[in-house]
From TrEMBL, chains A, B:
Stretches assigned to the Aspartate/glutamate/uridylate kinase domain: 4-227
Source organism of the structure: Salinicoccus roseus
Cellular component terms per the entry's GO annotation: cytosol
Purpose of the protein: Catalyzes the phosphorylation of the beta-carboxyl group of aspartic acid with ATP to yield 4-phospho-L-aspartate, which is involved in the branched biosynthetic pathway leading to the biosynthesis of amino acids threonine, isoleucine and methionine.
Protein name listed in UniProt: Aspartokinase
Domain Aspartokinase ACT: 340-398
């Protein structure tokens, strides 16, 4: 019997009418002979309301107790959806995160899934048509209830699919993955098939439809992953293994990461501990740096990297401290820049992608200040005010 | 270290301000060197709201999913109380029913506690000052979340106290146990000490402050049980073993059960299956009958009993069916009667209680139609319109 994992987010289960529509859709799939595992989030707004309550009771509410509070949101959704499915005559079992065997580790509110003990889940699937599972939650070794942090319900769904070896369908309020953000370049085409690697690069480079960790789990277990709009007839995007993708292109997508800070440091002393001192401070402050490139020559060395624009305040502090240690250092910090990336697993086999992209940007008069490449992506730092134009030029160049 | 179990009901935790007041009271007890296990209900109104939602989604919502839904109410209360206690600097651990090891059996929404696996609870108590536990809920052998039905949170508290051998304090919106309902007889005195047996009779006979099962658990494990008003300086009632009660009276209380139906049946055929046929139907309809007395003589036999007034509709149906089987039967059904009972463990040793009560009622001109006695109680069926007078006469007679 065909069994899939489906996930519906907070907007999709925003009110009882929407939950009823989803229940009817599930019923029609069950009547076609499918069995379904359905992962749901808290009803839209619930989590925010509970967080507001917690913060009204303490300016620093403890994470274990907040996690315990928030998980009631998903528990209510699984109850409501199950009551409706029962009423439609569907044999339904509801399960909280710990009942479904989702074991976590790490901080109470940003836990990661350590393992899934699927025996209860599989037993439930034997006797029911639909098993409804609370997303975003699990239980740790101390038997404490935890939440999975950002994109948590997606992770729940993909991890269960991986453990039970089933395809996973993520339903949300977008039609699928686009070659580039339609808000940036409105002619952007939808991608119907994309490889795990491409999708991971897209996510990491700023196309934030799915958390990278979800795609990683799907990739590691070869689980086909679908992303599409809830209750829509529009075809969404299947994320799958390289070999399964039918139509291979050199470039599949263009990602834009706006508001980044581009930093270049010049240090005449080649033996300087500058890089060590700097990176140590970034790590201590938990600041991510990206696009690191370094050149050493007779003049000393040059280091470039990018940082998210919202780190600007903490950055000043770090730079001041490092400048006191390395007074000869010359620093060039440019805010309001953007990172534009082209992604495509076809780059591995097809030559000339980089040079075609360089040419396109140059011909359009868009200067770029740094370039880094990975196996299946190339990223450019451009001026913030030229980023949309850069996306458009690249999308057109590669027929996206 | 002194450790007690405290229970606060839904009205006591009706809003965040009330929860904060309770947290402050707990803090002052902790600062006096106590450790506390605190059992709480859902915030007043929450359970009704969730039930309303469930019933709006299905006219017959399945009990397993409704139980799952309702338990989110208590889980939210334990989160909120714990966040506040944390903020007051109290080392606090929150636990749902299953985390506290409360194992149940029976229907999902009227489960009974099978056992408490207290190892997590005791470990939590080692490292915390207050352990906050969600009342009214547990987990069954199938790892399904269940609710305990009426008086469920009280049962949670008493069962934990029994398992951990601690006194149990139930806080509610009454000042304690009264010798008789102050709404019926306003001069009724509060009882500061009462035996388990007396309290059980009082509960069973209609003085519904505590469910009988709670008192039974406390009795079986010799756990002192306190009943009093939340955050009040008024002294409440301690329910305890016979030997610990200081001031023994012949009669401790008068209970009133209004709106009962008094039935008497005459059957000339002594070998008739009437009683069998009748009781079988009562059982099939799950109707409780009470105060059963039977007399057999040369004229045949006579059977009297009482039934709750709200069963009137179903009663007619049963009587019609039985009359068809036993056409010689003569039936006398009197609605709008009341049962008035006097309770006191002193009756065991003191003689003449029954005759003093008979006399008092007779002198006051209050006819009674049936009398039944237990070891520590005597019950009378009187006319509904004379029940308050009967309570008053008996309360005065025994100086309550």
């Amino acid at each position: 019997m065909e069994t899939s994992v489906l996930k519906f987010g907070g907007t999709s289960v925003g009110d009882f009418d929407k939950i009823k529509e989803i229940a009817n859709e599930l019923k029609s799939r069950v009547s076609r002979g499918e069995k379904l595992i359905v992962v749901v989030s808290a009803m839209g707004g619930t989590t925010d309301e509970l967080l507001l309550n917690a913060n009204s009771l303490s300016s620093t509410p403890k994470e274990d107790h907040v996690a315990l509070l928030l998980t009631t949101g998903e528990q209510q959704t699984i109850s409501y959806l199950s009551i409706i499915l029962d009423d439609l005559g569907i044999r339904t079992k509801a399960m909280t995160g710990y009942q479904a065997g989702i074991k976590t580790f790490g901080g109470h509110m940003k836990s990661r899934i350590a393992d899934i003990d699927q025996k209860h889940l599989e037993a439930a699937l034997d006797n029911h048509d639909v098993v409804v599972i609370a997303g975003f939650q699990g239980i740790n070794d101390e038997m404490e209830i935890t939440t999975l942090g950002r994109g948590g319900s997606d992770t729940t769904a993909v991890a269960i699919a991986a453990r039970c070896n089933m395809p996973c369908e993520i339903y949300t309020d977008v039609d699928g993955v686009y070659a580039t953000d339609p808000r940036v370049y409105e002619e952007a085409g939808r991608i119907y098939e994309i490889t795990y690697d491409e999708m991971m690069e897209m996510s990491a480079l700023g196309a934030g439809v799915l958390e990278t960790r979800c795609i990683e789990i799907a990739k590691n277990h070869s689980i086909p992953l679908y992303l599409g709009r809830t209750l829509s007839d529009e075809k969404g995007t299947w994320i799958m293994e390289d070999t399964q993708v039918l139509e291979r292109k050199a470039v599949t997508g263009v990602a834009l990461d706006s508001d980044i800070i581009h930093v270049t440091l010049y240090e005449p002393e080649r033996e300087s501990t500058l890089i060590f001192d700097l990176f140590e401070k970034f790590e201590a402050h938990d600041i991510n740096i990206d696009m690191i490139s370094q050149v050493v020559n007779s003049e000393g060395f040059q280091l470039s990297f990018t940082v998210k624009g919202n780190e600007s305040y903490r950055l000043d502090e770090i730079f001041e401290a490092v400048e006191r240690l390395h007074p000869e250092m010359v620093m060039d910090v440019r805010t309001n820049h953007s990172k534009v990336s082209i992604i495509g697993s076809g780059m591995r086999d097809m030559t000339g992608v980089a040079s075609r992209a360089f040419m396109a940007l140059q011909q359009a008069g868009i200067p770029f200040y740094q370039t880094t490449t990975s196996e299946i992506s190339i990223s450019y730092v451009v001026d913030g005010e030229k980023d949309r134009q850069a996306v458009e030029v690249l999308a057109k160049k590669f027929n996206l």
